[in-house]
Amino acid sequence: MAETPVQIESKITRILIVGTGLIGASTGLALKAAGFKGHISGWDATRVERLTALEMGAVDEVASSREEALSVARHAHVIVLAIPVMGILDWLLELAPVLRSGQLVTDVGSTKLQIAELGQGLFGGGGARFLPGHPMAGKESGGAALAEAGLFRGAMWLFTPFAEEMDELAVEWRSWVAKFGARTLDLDAARHDELCAWVSHLPQMLSTALAALLEDRFGDAPEIAAIGGRALRETTRLGASPYSMWRDVAMSNTDPIAETLFALEQRLAHVRENLKTPALRDEFALANRFRARR
């Protein structure tokens, strides 16, 4: 006779999401879609964002102030910091003195080195634990109104843990991320920032610079809309991203991003200097090889 599988009791029944914009609200929706039966509280500095998240069911209740959210955090099993990087650093400093053993803080910040280093100093002892994270998912625009439960499906959710062994809450949080349909990968925090500078931050800066250049050069010239087809739309799509979404990324990952931009400047100069030589063919061959692998 087959044995009945032992049901492991969930340790996570109360979650606080700080920042109920696109990623925070999508996290709440993903949790519920994956079967989470606990209580989800939310807070956002923007009243419209927190009320939108509440109305759409991403959270069960919202705190009306930062102070109230901090009070809720004292009783949450998991606190998810879904705000820009500088805000995450501020919240880590506020949370550390009031949290206790048996609580987990995690985040979704786009850069990780500053966050992980501060978190290790604040949560590296025997109290609450910290698991830095970064889902590689999003949209050109933010806001709870654009949130969806399937945002993370098929996406890579990166973690940069500084502890060799994960406690029960961290293990369970990872299991929820897997239930979202996300894949996971652990990286060293500095390596994370280096790689993301190349594969995420550089494409954003390139698209922004190109769109800004075209705006300066042509403005609202109707010919651009008439002849700028799919290639233009694809290469300038990220140019629609607002500065507010990328300011903290640029501030917290300045050197790696600057390195990628300098390398691109050199590469573009190489292309410019070889428009009439076989070197241009070689550049296309390298680009074709890169795309063929993906």
UniProtKB/TrEMBL annotation:
Residues 13-294 form the Prephenate/arogenate dehydrogenase domain. GO terms for biological process: tyrosine biosynthetic process. SUPFAM superfamilies: 6-phosphogluconate dehydrogenase C-terminal domain-like (SSF48179), NAD(P)-binding Rossmann-fold domains (SSF51735). Keywords: Oxidoreductase. InterPro entries: 6-PGluconate_DH-like_C_sf (IPR008927), NAD(P)-bd_dom_sf (IPR036291), PDH_C (IPR046825), PDH_N (IPR046826), Preph/Arog_dehydrog (IPR050812), Prephen_DH (IPR003099). Coiled coil: none annotated. Its EC number is 1.3.1.12. GO terms for molecular function: NAD+ binding; prephenate dehydrogenase (NAD+) activity; prephenate dehydrogenase (NADP+) activity. It comes from the Bacteria. Gene3D superfamilies: 6-phosphogluconate dehydrogenase C-terminal like domain, NAD(P)-binding Rossmann-like Domain. The keyword Oxidoreductase applies. The keyword Nucleotide-binding does not apply. It holds the Pfam family PDH_N. This is Prephenate dehydrogenase. It comes from Granulicella arctica.
